[in-house]
Structure formats: C-alpha cells, structure tokens
Amino acid sequence: MENELLLLQIRELRKAFGEQKVLDGIDLGVKKGETLTILGRSGSGKSVLLKLIIGLQRPDSGSIRIGDAEVTRMAGDQLDEIRKKIGFLFQYSALYDSLSVEENVAFPLRRHTRMPDHEREERVRELLARVGMESAAAKMPGEISGGMKKRVGLARALAMEPDLMLMDEPTAGLDPLTAAEIIDLILELQRARSMSSVVVTHEMQTVRAVSDRIAMLDEGRIRVEGAFEALKHSRDSLVAAFVKQGIEGEPCHA
Ligand SMILES: Nc1ncnc2c1ncn2[C@@H]1O[C@H](COP(=O)(O)OP(=O)(O)OP(=O)(O)O)[C@@H](O)[C@H]1O
Ligand SMILES: [Mg+2]
C-alpha cells in the first residue's frame, strides 16, 4: 500500500500490561474513505488498540500516524488538536451521565470550537436529527435505552466532522432491527463524507455490511487480513469459527 494514501498507519505497535503482552507487533493501514473492521476474541486487545490510536493510552513502542502526525509522540494541546479530527464511539457509549443528551452532543463543540451559542444549538439539533434522536434532546442518559445511547454516542462522535471514526462495538447488545438501523446510519455516513473508519465488532451482520477490509487480532498480532469474501473461504480455524457463527446466525433463504 502506498504510504501517502493512508490516513492511518500503524507500525510495530506494542503494548503490555505488566507481564501480559496485549499487542505484540501490530501493522495496519487505513486509506482515506476506507472502513477496516477488527475482529478478535474477547480480551484480544481490540479496545486497547482503539484507545492507543486516539492517545488515551500510550504504547510501549511502535508508531501510529494519522495523516502526517505521529500520535505516540503527542501530548497536551497537540493531542487535543488531533482528537478534533477523530470521532470515537466507545464500547459502552460513555455518555456523561450528568449531562443531557443535547449537552453530551454539544460537549466536543464547546471544548474544541468557539461557535456562537445559536450556531452550536442548531448544529446539535442537526446531529440529533441525523441519528433520529431529536425528541430525546432534553433527556438524561439514565432515561434512555442502550440503542438510543449508541445513537447519541454516534451523534457526539460526529460533532466535529471527523476524518477518522473509531467505533467500538457499535451494534453489540442491540436487537437486530436497531442494529440494522445503526448499520444503515454508518453506511450513510461512509457514503456522504468519505470518512475513514476502524470498527471493532464481532457481529457478522455488521462486519459484512460495513467492512472494506477485515483484520483478525489474535495473541497480539494480526492473524489474517482481507476482504469478507476472502475470509469466508479461509481455512484458518479461528477465522472460520467467527465467520461461520455469523453465517449460521443469519436467516435462511434456502
Ligand atoms: N488499563 C488496563 N490495565 C490493565 N490491563 C488492561 C487495561 N486495559 C486492558 N487491559 C487488558 O488488556 C486485554 C485486552 O483488553 P481489551 O479491552 O482491549 O479487549 P477487547 O478485545 O476489547 O475485549 P472485548 O471483546 O471483551 O471488549 C485484557 O486482558 C484486559 O484485561
Ligand atoms: Mg473491547
């Protein structure tokens, strides 16, 4: 892959917690407009990988480049600056419990811009409309369902119009219809703005719908990488186990 086309480039990334080597030499690239899906067992380091990309955790060694910026060397204001261009949908939505839905979505705009109040309010309304949550604007996170929280998390992650979107389990724990709605939303966003994404999920419905490419994380390394069709025919036992589970879980059209 040509380096200049890569929006995100990860090289030789390592992270251990004590004796436990969670990531042990990861190389990955994501092109502009591309969606890379990370698969892997529970505890394989998927969430850690996303947190390293956004600088919430520090790697032990290796490089993470977003555009021309080396995230691993950044701190303070620089990190703040690069985070403006990255949207993060956390595994458990991570809304601020003491802030209303609209205040949650407004948060990044308050923090990173000097937008006048009326402009910000308008923008928050637009974002909530985009995820179908206008009517819940004044609610508190404790008063809405898990699927609604994901939507609000998505709206908040999109507030700064990111070039790169990181989504940790965007559809986990949702019923199939709500999951399908979130998937449609993600696809719409991919089409509308050639945004690059890294999506962590083990839901095959989501993997299939959103991925341009898939990377399987196992024992700290990328075990297999390729398009969904290629992985479907993989003889690798772990890949087969993931993909097969997904296909068996689908409605039968035979
Ligand atoms: N801050 C931390 N301190 C110590 N260990 C950690 C920390 N964060 C993660 N780990 C460990 O790193 C490993 C990978 O965690 P991670 O959350 O990335 O897994 P995951 O692949 O996202 O799993 P899941 O699918 O269950 O979300 C786990 O063994 C976890 O206990
Ligand atoms: Mg995780």
Write the layout of secondary structure elements.
Elements: E1 6-17, E2 20-31, E3 35-40, H1 46-53, E4 61-66, E5 69-70, H2 76-83, E6 86-89, H3 101-112, H4 117-130, H5 146-158, E7 164-168, H6 176-192, E8 196-200, H7 204-210, E9 213-218, E10 221-226, H8 228-232, H9 237-248
Parallel strand pairs: 3-8, 3-9, 6-7, 7-8
Antiparallel strand pairs: 1-2, 1-4, 4-5, 9-10
Helix pairs in contact: 3-4, 3-5, 4-5, 6-7
The protein binds adenosine-5'-triphosphate and magnesium ion.
Adenosine-5'-triphosphate (ATP) binds next to helix 1.
Radius of gyration: 18 Å
Give the helix level as a range of percent. Answer: 25-40%
At the first level of CATH, the class of the domain at 1-85 and 194-254 is Alpha Beta
Strands in their spatial order, largest beta sheet: 6-7-8-3-9-10
Strand content: 25-35%
Number of helices: 9
Averaged pLDDT = 89
Q: What is the number of beta strands? A: 10
In this entry the ligands are:
adenosine-5'-triphosphate, magnesium ion
The CATH level-2 architecture of the domain at 1-85 and 194-254 is identified as 3-Layer(aba) Sandwich
Biggest β-sheet strands, sense, barrel: 6 strands, mixed
From the helix content, strand content and strand pairing, which structural class follows? alpha/beta
CATH topology of the domain at 1-85 and 194-254: Rossmann fold
Spatial separation of the terminal alpha carbons: 39 Å
Supply the CATH superfamily name of the domain at 1-85 and 194-254.
Answer: P-loop containing nucleotide triphosphate hydrolases
Shape: globular
Q: Uncertain runs with pLDDT below 50, 5 residues or more?
A: 250-254
Order of helices and strands: EEEHEEHEHHHEHEHEEHH
